[in-house]
Amino acid sequence: MEEIKIYKKPRLKNPYLICVWPGMGEVAFKAATYLVDKLKAEEFAQIPPADFFYSTGSVIQEGILNVPNPPFSKFYYWKNPSGKNDLIIFISQAQPDLSKAEDYCSRIIHMAKIFKVKMIINFAAMPQPIDHTQIPNVWFTSTSEKINNLLKKYNFSLLSQGQISGMNGLFLGIAKRQGFEGFCLLGEIPFYTVQIANPKASYIVLDALSRILNIQIDFSSLMEQAHVMENEINKLLDYLKIDSQPSAPISDEEIEKIKKSLSQLTKLPVSVKEKIEELFRHVNGDTSKANELKNELDKWNVYKEYEDRFLDLFKKKEDTGN
Question: Is residue 263 included in any domain, yes or no?
Answer without folding.
Answer: no
